[in-house]
Structure formats: structure tokens, C-alpha cells
Amino acid sequence: MKILLAIAAIALAGCSSMPKQPPLRTVDHVNLSQFMGDWYVIGTIPWFVEKNNVGTMDIYKLRPDGKIDIRYAFHRKSLEAPRQEMKATATVVNTKTNAEWAVQFLWPFKAPFLVIDLSPDYRHTTIGYPDRSLIWIMSREPVMSEKDYTAALESARAQGYDISRIIKVPQKSQTTP
Description:
- By secondary structure, the chain is of the alpha+beta class.
- The protein has a single domain, classed as Calycin beta-barrel core domain (Lipocalin, Beta Barrel), CATH 2.40.128.
- Helices cover 16% and strands 38% of the residues.
- An eight-stranded antiparallel β-barrel has the order 1-2-3-4-5-6-7-8.
- The longest helix is centred in the C-terminal third of the chain and has 13 residues, at 146-158.
- It is globular and about 40 Å long.
């Protein structure tokens, strides 16, 4: 039920009366094989099912059919709490850039997933939502340097995000299985 409500909230977010902004700019190209793997969420404007989650990460795995399996792992309120997971599937909707996906947590609802920033070495990325109500700044490691985090925030600001709404997500300093 919570997931259904989350999808409905995302769908309604597109109906808000926020001032019209230009579309988010995605990166020129994403090498899907290189993008796959673990991504720790360092900063976010969380949607309601993410609130109070810590130690969050997305795990991407490319399927033979070209779709992407996503596991969203998190701990509720405390890094010491048991790890939980939610699963989703993504479809690349712009195969020229591979930077625009449709993510489905619950059929038939799909949410846009836009790769709006990606470091050349695939160590950091930022995922945006078209109306700028959601964002995920992610790193391959559970810790991101202040320099890199500040650069990600500035990139988000340049795309029209209110960066005062972005919160840091507590992470363990070392990965745990």
C-alpha cells in the first residue's frame, strides 16, 4: 500500500503549480555496463518512503533483455537497524544517451529517472526528477569528499534545484554485506 501511495504522490507532483522551468539536461551518454553496480546515496530530497532511511544505496544490474534490475537498500532510522530492500525495474527510454530511464516499483506506474550529472570516472552521479522535487546525489563509496559534494550541489543548483532542500544521508564509513 505504501508503494502505491508513493507512486501516486510522484504522479501528482507533476501536477503542482511550481513555476515553469526548462527541462532538466541529462548527460550526453551513459555507458550502462560501467554505470551498473553499487551507488551510495549521499544527498537527497527524499520522497516520503525514503524519509528516515539511512545507509541508503541503489544497486543496478543490467539484464540480458536490456532492462535494469534495481535494489534499493536502506536501514530505517539507524545504521544499526536491519537492512531492508525494495526492488524495481528500469527501462531505458532514450537509447541514444542511456540517460533517461523509466523506473517501475509497482505495475503499471513508472517514474522518470534522469542522469543529470556523472563524473567521467563513474565515481559520482546525480539523478534528477523532471519537476525538481526529487534528487539523488550518489557515490560509489559511502563517503564523498566535500569538494565533490559541493560540486554536485552546484551542478544541481545550475539545473534549477533548490539545494537548501537537499539533505545528507548518514552512511557507514565502510561497506557491509
